[in-house]
Amino acid sequence: MAAKLFSACFGRKGCRKDSSDNAAKVHTANAQDPASGEEQRKGGSVLVELFTSQGCATSPEAELLISRLGRGELPDDAPPVIILAYHVEYWDYLGWKDPFGSMLWTARQKAYVEALQQDTIYTPQVVVQGRAECFGTNEEALLAEISKAQQFSGPTMQ
């Protein structure tokens, strides 16, 4: 059940807008679908992490882009993605306290900044597969990082 739900929502055959029709069509993934096995052999999903804050003026645009990405509005040759969004709290001093912000997510982002040898911490920042980063509103850079990200096979679900 979990594998079917996961592939229906995040897999390439899952919730995506059909370009041949203006209305959004939902394709259901079949657990016996040979494409699912083929995708598992090619590689797993790509992890995309967004660091955002309600106190950041450009974060809503990045959240919209990530939302579209999560709905499967990707190029057909793009790998499936797993999306995580973290609200950081370092903008809270400006007067708008983000109720979802956490120092744990700020610490996670700081660890990425150090690991990726960046000069500064900022929002909205997207980290792809823990190995590359880009500005959260730059769709072209985000899709390029996703397409060239190394994929790791996930566990086989039966």
UniProtKB/TrEMBL annotation:
Pfam families: DUF1223. InterPro entries: DUF1223, Thioredoxin-like_sf. Residues 14-40 are annotated as: Disordered. It comes from the Eukaryota. This is Thioredoxin-like fold domain-containing protein. The lineage of its organism: Eukaryota, Viridiplantae, Streptophyta, Embryophyta, Tracheophyta.
